[in-house]
Amino acid sequence: MFSGIDEVDWASMEHAYGPADDVPELLRGLASADPAEREAALDGMYGAVHHQGDVYACTLACIPFLFELVVDPGVQDRGGVVELLTSIGGFDLDEDDEAEIDEDEIEGAANYAMAAAAVTAGAGVFFELIADEDPGVRLAAPLALATLHRHPVRVLALLRERLPVEPDEEVRLALVEAAGRVALRHRPLAERVGKWLGLLAERADSPGLRLAALAQLARCSPDGLPGDVVPVVAGLLREMRSVPEESGDRGDGGEHAPPGGIAAREDDEPEPGPDTTPDAEPVDPEPVASVETGRGEHVATPTLVGQLRSLSAQENAGRGAPWAADLLRTLHVGLDDRVGDRTALLADQLRSPDRRQRIDAVRMSGGLIRAWRGPYEELVALVGEQLSDPEPRLAEAASHVLEELFGLAAPAADALAARLAADPGSWVKTWASGPPGLSSTVKALARLGDARAVPALAGALELPQVAHDVGFAVGHLGETARPLAGTLRRRLAEIELDEGAYDRASPLLAGLTALRAGEAAPEVLRVLRGAPEYRGEWLRTAALRALGAFGPAAREAVPELRALVRRPGTASATEAAEALWAVSGDAEAVLPVLIEGLQSDQVHDRRAAAVALGALGPRAAVVAPRLRGLLAHEELWLRVDAAIALWEVSGRTRETVGALLTAWEQNRHVRVRVAECLARMGPVPEGSAAAHVLRSELVSVRRHNAMDGGYGSHDIHEDEKLLALCRQALRGTGKGSTS
């Protein structure tokens, strides 16, 4: 094995962490008899040689040796090596990608193409591995074939032939998933695959296999799903709970029903010829159901691979069918915008007697609500019921989901309050490093504006170190949190103005700002005057915002603010001018400062000046030409801020609305800001471009800020805010008109 490995000039190549002269050791480690050494080597391959999916010259040089490993039956954990090869060779570079490649990326793109060609050229070995004695190899081989082999019709034929004789349940699920992958990559085969999956969903003797077929059908041929998909899936889940499956059980369904599924019929796919292979359609790779690669005995290792395996083992401990959650997630992805079906399915899961199934359902409920709009009252109430469950992971998962829902969490308000009252010791979470934070239950209740969160915030304010997010919670409670103003003021007066002042003072200042607690002006002024050098600018900004929120109640700060505005052209001068206007209403004092800020070299400073000028309204009409000139600026957010300010100072809507609607189409993240302005303008005329845009947003099922592969903690809140503003703009409760 590894003939010629020492003849490769590894030292001349590099991987993610420097010279690649350690690659031979990693390759040999993959063949080691020591499980810990094998796992460390696999971790090194993913961490350096194939770092975050990258392909280097040394990655290409590894490919022949990786193939040697996967075909040697004496090597253990070969399934992990098959998965590594699949990842290295499975990158699709479509025409759009090629058009966007710049000179710096040409070498990397060439490496991806060469890796795909090299692994695809050797993909025939996976035909043999699909019947390997090692179940871990058999688990990885189907997806490798579906991803890499040039002849998808042959692959489909093999998957169907293998399914009836495969003894391992998880491998059978991988065979079905591989068929779905083939259909996604080779769309002309989707109908053929869909028919087979439909038969499996109806006739397969294993409920897990039927569920897998439905999940893949949802992905590649959703029109083939049964009309009653929700009760069908619910029934399969109940069947899986009542009849535990064994991985070695072939589940023979009688002499006419082959074990594991439905045999291929004589009139099905023909043998492939030179013209029967459709062109591939690239799709993003997705992993098969998680299992222990190789099925051998694994030892605990400090590697990333080891940690992920350990977490997976903890998560799946005691589960009769640990892959069921993956199948349900796949099904939900396939159901896509069928929010009603997905909600009904999750509601059924949340009523399950199986706590692990409910944990999965809680998490999937969060994913559904983050991405799609819909009526979620029943689902949220069911999530709230999990808060009282004695299983801590279930209750905690429910609490975290509710934290992200803001107003949508209302059906669970009583359940949140009950959980809060039952365990006062959990109000604040402490960490090994960093400041303490409020528990998700406290935040969820506060974000509802529920007064029952106030005692928890009061308790948090009495701790030696104040939770960093107290101020934000106060902001959501508004006047309900007014009783906390005195404590916030007292704690701010106690802050030492040293290098740690910002971290300690900022949550207190945020709370006082939200409450507009003008009586705290002396304490805020002390912070403004004594801000230390370290993070002093941040601290002064927080103090100035507080004073601006206090308005005329902070009149004693006027001399200090006038002194700060005498340094025009700086960010602090603009912020001080904003505060001075809010406190004194002296437009003559602040207008020159803001005009100069509008000419800053920094886009951020120009945006701040534009927003502040808008707050002056007609008193700043003289700057309208300057603001109009910014409507053509290359920075989109500056164009939006300038357009809004232009309307506020001039009252003219035509050019403003045009600029705002253009930005709306260019960047979805500006939509809340744009909708706020349209709502303040007043009734949007029926038939206008603005009305069309707003109504189109309201009928969209997808949240405007939904992202594939990531999300923000305030995404749901921002999207619900956008919907409310769209309705308000169409109703016309603003102060002007967009005509």
From TrEMBL:
Region (Disordered): 243-303
A UniProt-annotated Pfam family: HEAT_PBS
InterPro entries registered for this protein in UniProt: ARM-like, ARM-type_fold, PBS_lyase_HEAT
Biased segments, Basic and acidic residues type: 243-255
Name of the protein described by the UniProt record: HEAT repeat domain-containing protein
Phylogenetic placement of the source organism: Bacteria, Bacillati, Actinomycetota, Actinomycetes, Kitasatosporales
